[in-house]
Amino acid sequence: MTHTPHGLRARNSRAAALLAAATVSLAATGCSVANTTSGDSAGAGNTLRVVLPQEPPTLEPCEASLTATGVVVRSNITEPLLERNPTSGALEPKLATEWTQTQPTLWTFKLRPGVKFSDGSDFTSEDAVAAIERSANNTALACNVQGYVFGDSGKLTLAAPDAATVTVQTEQPDPLLPLRVSFVEMTKSDISTTEKVREPVGTGPYKIESWAAGQKLTLTSWDGYWGSKPRYAKAEYQWREEGTVRAAMVVNGEADLATNLGADDGAGDTGVQYPNNETTALRFSTDQAPLDDIRVRQAIDMSVDRQGIITSLFGGIGQPASQLIGPGVVGYNESLTPTPYDLTAAKALVDQARADGVKVDTPFRIIGRTAQFPKIAESIELIQSALTQIGLTAKIEMLDTSAQIKYQLRPFPEGAGPVALMIMHGNQAGDAAFTVGQYFATDGAQSSSGSPQLDQQIKAAGALTGDARQQAFADVFASENQDIRGFTFLANMGAVLGLAKNVSYTPDAATGDELRLADVKPKS
Amino acid sequence: MTAIGMEVSGLTVELATPRGTVRAVDGVSFTAYRGRTLALLGESGCGKSMTAQAVAGLLEPIASVTAGSVQVDGEDLLKVSRKRRRQLAGPALSIVFQDALTALNPVLKVGTQLAEPYRIHQRMPARQARAKAIELMRHVGIPEPESRVDAYPHQFSGGMRQRLLIAMAVALSPKVLIADEPTTALDVTVQAQILALLARLRAEHDMAVVLITHDLAVVAEEADTVAVMYSGRIVETGPVDEVFEDPRHPYTRGLLDSVPVDAERGSDLSSIPGAPPDLFSIPPGCPYQARCPLVRDVCQTERPPLETRAGRTVACHVAEGTAR
Amino acid sequence: MTLLENPPEASAPDRPVKANWFRLLLADPAAFVSALILLLVAFVAVFGKRLAGDSAVTGDLSLSRLAPFSLDHGWQYVLGGDLLGRSLLGRLMVATQTTMSVVVPVVLISLVIGASVGMWAGYHRGWRETVAMRIADVVYSFPSLLMAVVVLYIFSPSIASIIAILAITRIPVYLRTARAESAELQTRLFVDAARTFGTPSGAIIRRHIFPIVLPTLLTVATVDFCYVMLAESSLSFLGIGVQPPDVSWGLMVAQGRDQLRTQWWLSVLPGLAIVITTVSANLLASWVRIATDPGQRWRLTTPRRRRRAARPTVLETT
Amino acid sequence: MLTFLRRRTLTSLPPLLAVVLGVFVLARLTGDPAALYLPENATAQAREQFSAAHGFDQPIWSQLIDYLAQVTRLDFGTSLRTGEPAAVMALRAFPATLQLAVVTMLLACAVATAVGCWAALRPNGLGDRISSLMSMTAASVPDFWLAILGIWVFSIMLGVLPTSGVDAGGLSWVLPIAVLMLRPAGVLTQVVRGAMIAALGSPYVKVARSKGAGERRVVVRHALKNAAPPALTVAGDLAVGLINGAVVVESIFGWPGIGKLMIDSILQRDFAVLQAAVAITAISIFVLNIGIDLGYALLDSRVRQKVGAAA
């Protein structure tokens, strides 16, 4: 395979291109381009070219918890007061230098001095208050961050005692408040509170230079950024749906960095594997036969060949999962191990249930979201085929996001029947509270199982801090596996990042949600 | 006055069909004189149209000339190069087809089509060729040619279309004009006009006309010489008066007998009992034997040659001395 | 106008017709091979599931992505294994059935409905024609793939709904063809004659118009055959085609596209199946067109050498 | 002529309206987008709020009336996904697809005419057989498959073409057009071939030959013009079908066109954008159909007469 990176920069207008394409001189043009490009990628000079799976629908900072938006906005265009280190899990200062719980329900944030927005105005506590107000309390705007992080936090009362201080009053004592605030990107106080803003002004190292919708988004670094100047003067984002195409762009020298590749996308030696936040699992509706019997659910759990799926389908990327979060998230239970693959035992369990009068022959559906992760259809197919062998009847149904999400969120469709839903959960926040409340609590928005005892456990754990919190959530995961088995965990997923030879970057668990351009450096 | 226009000799055309090769035209010879009309007469399927197409070089790929020659002006049309053949198409020999509606290109103006011979052969500029086209239209009797030169074929009546087709054929004053059933598709009155036009043009351009028809009346009125074809062969030929007055071949006689005395123009040749032989199973000997009232043993074994005896040219074993 | 005023072969009706057809087929090697391929496809479509056996259904992950053209793992794996370690040959055979059970009904349904409505509309003209054509316009002016996507999101993608939506989007093709021909035919003398005898319009359409329109419709159907297979494949690309555990050629091509560079056989072989089948159908169709047309039939029998020598011209004259 | 255009436009209006209405209703049957646009743990109340804000809680017919009232003011609504006006998004994407489609169809027609004519000169000859086989194969290759293969071969192995995108000048056009034109070129070649065989066999071609016309003149002046109408019909249908191909090609090559916009809008239940995109597509298809009718008239005087008669 030859690598012929060429800096195919656009000079011709579209009309000229049209002409060129339609004429015979085409071949000649092709040769000259191929020949004039040298090994040194012309674009690299001072521009970082990133290719994403999809175009950001908007760059509205309060939507930054949406992957497609956040990956561009977060820490590039706008910045939060503090941010979580995806590796250690610790919160680190960003636009706030320190934060303290001055009272059980009152948090005080000290702002970094000398920070400016890219339009030259100063960043003050007034801006911070407006931004938090907009993301946390403004339900009319229906920001994704509002629902994702502040949905259960109650109303916040904000104040700016002086230009460098912000206080946040919560209704209940909230140990997670700093973590929640780390999701709020800082915007100017005059930002609209009634409409979303497609192109925000932020304090980040880059500002938006141009956005040719559908084609390309260009960010440029600006003088006056409070931190150290990023190594690339410009960043160009493009988007391609097919992983193979994204990989090809890096291999071919048309992009420096490609996110969300699969093992089979052909990144070759430009591919860098990394674990992402996501965990995949089958979630059972536990109220209908045959899934209402825990032995059946356990049997299903045993008939999933996790290692086989990871090796054969995921190309060796990912780890067999024992719980809904990965290591590194507060509450991860080290002692849980993935259920071993054992069809004989599974069949025995099913037979046992059948003997006890459980209607194990009742068909149920395995529902998956098309292209949610690479090889999802094949994975489900493999599981379904194993279930047939242990005497269960499962039908596969692949749905698009909009249709699948109806089964994922309460209230579930009426008359849905027994369903095993393939889910993929990513805990961006780094704390199990954002997982268990959603999925394990009987009233969780995405829960179809649970028990009163488990609810108790979850509630108690949420109020704790430190090691006790870690232990309590770890126990929650153990109890779920032991007593409920509302899930069959598949894998802690991983992904591949395509990285050009002359670029240096170390992906971490948050890379898919937040790609910090400042961390990307040219290789010397 | 009676210079030879075209001399066809031993023309043989074979067809490759699903069931083998058949001879559709078998050793046909005739001579067309300038200023005269030669009629090729026969039932449909007898090979007369095929003969015309072979002579004009317009055979379909299924058919091919396997023997014979077509001499026009000292050149054998069957031997010359394709390029030369094209150069001769028009000035030396041209053809008028039966169905003028399909023979005129529906999407081109008639003026364009009429001008084409001049454009091709004389490389005449468009304007000049157009003037020639108008002149041609007037020549063949189309009223108001200036305004109709830009019309399309479907805007003309059947008779006018046939005139246009003839005009196109005589544009370059060919030495030989083949008219393949030129009036079959027309009303009787229009037929007469077209035949009159042909006769006039023949005289004006001193053309040898080969008229292909199945219409005895047309032959009687228009032709000087007739060649009667049966099953791919000429069975009798001679001046029209002689042949029609005193047919020597039983087939010719059968044809003439089948026409009521007061027959109208256009009556068909269909009242001889029986049908022509299947081309695949032409019996040895005389092809007419199955329908011939005078059939003898020799007819079943020996093919009668086309021979001239006593001033009459007939292909029949029994014809000799059967004068009426 | 027929230049061979009596086509020689037409005058011998006593020859056995069937033998003649078979000879005509033999005379065109390409068509003959095509016919054999289509027979094989039909055979596999009917018996494939049984022949393929277990290896097409239950995978063996240790044989995942097995390379083709080796008999080490039995004949089933001669074309390699898929991601789940199932025999690709077996999968192709099973897929033949699904593919055909989508494509054939789609073509038949749209053919029957489109042709009936089209002939009816063309025969009666007037408002019936206008209404039918405007409805066809509506269906036709919305890109069929997008229509299929919208509809399949409403009714979840099952084989039945895929057949239904693809059939609907293809109806206008037949409707337009049938209408045009029938509108032309209804002015002809023999239809007039039938009408004056008081033959009901349904019978006229059936007896006089249908047989004449049929060859054209069949030609359109062959082309459509290919179109439907590709449309189904495009739907699979978008994730709303045939759903696992069912499998079609289109789905296999779509699912295998990621492996094009590493395990090419996963998508190339089913792709070849589509190409070979449609090319065969087209070749056979063009043979049928020639063989049923007396003016062209000679092409199949004239020796090749002669044909090349012949002047490039003129053929059908009707 | 003007009368013809006016009448044609009038008769085209009801189908156009039906398309827009059909899409409106069908799209809404695919479900309420609230769940897609709100965070996963949004409350039922938040969802109701969202539905009410965008009118999804109303019965379809009342939504439809509101929408039509809006459209008469040339307001096609706002995208749920991007917050931009739907019409702006559709109009921005449309030219990219139009350019792609026009170039593709022109090239496909050129290739089909050349190959089809050439093949028709010697029907069933070796050249005809090869070109038939190739055109049939071309028409039956899945486009997405070819696109990925093309990227692999021409971009990665040979390194002569960019993988995707629009900013490499003329070279960006090569792969998308090659992939997109394969099917139309294949189908059209077959149609041109068939029509040319028929035309070359007709008596007027014999007449032309009898006038001494050379091969070139016979093919170009006499046969081709007669063979054009059926090819034109099929070309029109294929042009409509290009939108299907555009969905796939635009997705793979990152071409910012309307096919991708439509499919994304369906996936995201971004109804306003879908409707705007469908409306502009449907209008362009009707314009195309009228253009084809005019093309007939241009080619064939018999049709021209009818068109003229309508005036």
From TrEMBL, chain A:
GO molecular function annotations of the record: peptide transmembrane transporter activity
SUPFAM superfamilies per record: Periplasmic binding protein-like II
InterPro entries, A to Z: SBP_5 (IPR039424), SBP_5_dom (IPR000914)
Give all residue intervals belonging to the Solute-binding protein family domain.
91-406
Pfam families per the UniProt record, alphabetical: SBP_bac_5
Sorted UniProt keywords: Signal
Signal sequence segment: 1-27
Biological processes annotated in GO? peptide transport
PANTHER family assigned: MONOACYL PHOSPHATIDYLINOSITOL TETRAMANNOSIDE-BINDING PROTEIN LPQW-RELATED, PERIPLASMIC BINDING COMPONENT OF ABC TRANSPORTER
Instruction: Return the protein name.
Output: Peptide ABC transporter substrate-binding protein
**Source organism per UniProt:** Acrocarpospora macrocephala
From TrEMBL, chain B:
UniProt record similarity statement: Belongs to the ABC transporter superfamily.
Per the UniProt entry, what species is this protein from, by scientific name?
Answer: Acrocarpospora macrocephala
**Protein name, as recorded:** Dipeptide/oligopeptide/nickel ABC transporter ATP-binding protein
Output the NCBIfam families linked to this UniProt entry: oligo_HPY
Subcellular localization, as worded in the UniProt entry: Cell membrane
What are the protein's GO molecular function terms? ATP binding; ATP hydrolysis activity
What membrane topology was assigned to this protein in its record? Peripheral membrane protein
Q: Which CDD domains match?
A: ABC_NikE_OppD_transporters
TrEMBL record, chain C:
Q: Which GO terms describe its cellular component?
A: plasma membrane
Q: State the InterPro entries in the record.
A: BP-dependent_transpt_permease (IPR050366), MetI-like (IPR000515), MetI-like_sf (IPR035906)
CDD domains linked to this entry: TM_PBP2 (cd06261)
The source's superkingdom equals Bacteria
Which UniProt keywords are listed?
Cell membrane, Membrane, Transmembrane, Transmembrane helix, Transport
What name does UniProt use for this protein?
ABC transporter permease
Q: Which family does it belong to?
A: Belongs to the binding-protein-dependent transport system permease family.
Transmembrane regions = 30-48, 102-123, 143-169, 209-230, 264-288
Picking any one GO biological process from the record gives:
transmembrane transport
Ranges for the ABC transmembrane type-1 domain?
Answer: 96-285
Major place of localization?
Answer: membrane
What topology does the record note for this protein and the membrane?
A: Multi-pass membrane protein
PANTHER family noted in UniProt: D,D-DIPEPTIDE TRANSPORT SYSTEM PERMEASE PROTEIN DDPC-RELATED, OLIGOPEPTIDE TRANSPORT SYSTEM PERMEASE PROTEIN APPC
Subcellular location as annotated: Cell membrane
From TrEMBL, chain D:
Its annotated compartments are:
Cell membrane
Q: Which GO terms describe its cellular component?
A: plasma membrane
| Keywords recorded for this protein, A-Z | Cell membrane, Membrane, Transmembrane, Transmembrane helix, Transport
GO molecular function annotations of the record: dipeptide transmembrane transporter activity
Pfam families, from UniProt?
BPD_transp_1 (PF00528)
Q: What is its main location?
A: membrane
Coiled-coil annotation: which residues? none
The topology of this chain with respect to the membrane is:
Multi-pass membrane protein
Q: Where are the transmembrane segments?
A: 98-121, 142-161, 271-292
Q: Which residues form the ABC transmembrane type-1 domain?
A: 94-292
| InterPro entries linked to this entry | MetI-like (IPR000515), MetI-like_sf (IPR035906)
Q: Which family does it belong to?
A: Belongs to the binding-protein-dependent transport system permease family.
Per its record, how is this protein called by name?
A: ABC transporter permease
